[in-house]
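Quick start: load a record and inspect it. Here is Hydroxyphenylacetyl-CoA thioesterase PaaI:
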Amino acid sequence: MALSAEEIARRSADAMWARDDASKWLGASLDAVGPGTARLSMTVEKHHTNGHDICHGGYIFTLADSAFAFACNSYNTLVVAQHNAITFIAPGRLGDRLVADAREIARFGRSGIYDVRVSNQAGALIAEFRGNSRVIEGRHFDEDNA
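Running the structure step on this input writes:
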């Protein structure tokens, strides 16, 4: 029996999460995943803050990049980043719960475009991220034995 698109997305995410030490080290949680979508979140802790006492942009980028990775890898194909860009809108503050919502804009050939909106617990926009993906060889799991 063939797996549904939702099941494929979940199993792909489970396989990736098992090996994703960077997202775990960040303190991120994988809150949702579906075909072409993912949501990750993290709480800004003292070790995430910079010399301005706000969340370092690199951590916000990492959270967005991880959401992008789970969204573009949700089809049981191995996908990597080809190009990413972020625009910071407002600071993340100590104690904020940052949420990165990734959604697929387009998938064509071996390439894809994904947008990630990073907001805080009040829904205020913190950053907008755009990721371009590229499919490489391989699968996250064997669908024939799933």
